[in-house]
Amino acid sequence: MSTVARNEGWNALLRSWQEADIPEGWHAEVCEGGITMVPPPGVDHNLIAGVVHRALLGAVPREWGVYQTLGISVVGLRRLYVPDLVVMPVEALTRADLDPVPASSAKLVVEIVSPSNARVDRVEKLRAYAEASIPVYLMIDRFDEHGPLVTVFSDPADGHYREIMAALFGSRIELPEPINLKLDTNDFR
Question: Could you tell me the pTM of the whole model?
Fold first, then answer.
């Protein structure tokens, strides 16, 4: 496929995403299979997101924001995701011509795994976020086969993360540079 045809296909997907009539509370992502509708998260998911959001607000520099429902694109892979939380410099959002924002602007993405999106978060997004060189990917997985698990992926290179740290819920886990936060997971459920 030529670069022109590939770009036209991406632009068509992007227009469809931007123009989609999405039910309130839902969001759409561009995944391997095209545009996917993602239902609103449940109570436990929102409680975890709130705990992480509060912790991040105290850890990131003032010129960075912590965002929910922000679309980020990995153009090289023709993907567009809406992570549960994204940390990025505020200035990355001030360019009116960038919607969605390039994933490469993110300093951290957080995904809270649900049964309906487990494969996407564990495999597809892991690869895409590494490909976009996002420094830290925090995956919170209540449904891991070994028990509720928090995994920190960092040091991206060549489309994969070279550093992986994992801890069961109820412990503390360190989010490395550029975040520098010891995240307490005692309030996760």
Answer: 0.86
Residue 178 burial (C-beta neighbours within 10 Å; 0-12, 13-18, 19+): middle
76 is a domain residue:
yes
- Which run of H or of E encompasses 60? none
- Distance between CA 189 and CA 187 in Å, rounded? 6
What's the domain count of the chain? Answer: 1
The answer to whether 137 touches 129, Cβ cutoff 8 Å, is yes
Give residue 182's Cα distance to chain centre. Answer: 19
Mapping DSSP to helix (H, G, I), strand (E, B) and coil, where does residue 85 land? strand
Strands 79-81 and 160-168: unpaired
pLDDT in tens, 63-76: 999 999 899 998 78
Gap between the Cα atoms of 104 and 92, Å rounded: 10
CATH number where 156 lies: 3.90.1570.10
User: In this structure, are residues 98 and 70 in contact, taking their beta carbons and an 8 Å threshold?
Assistant: no
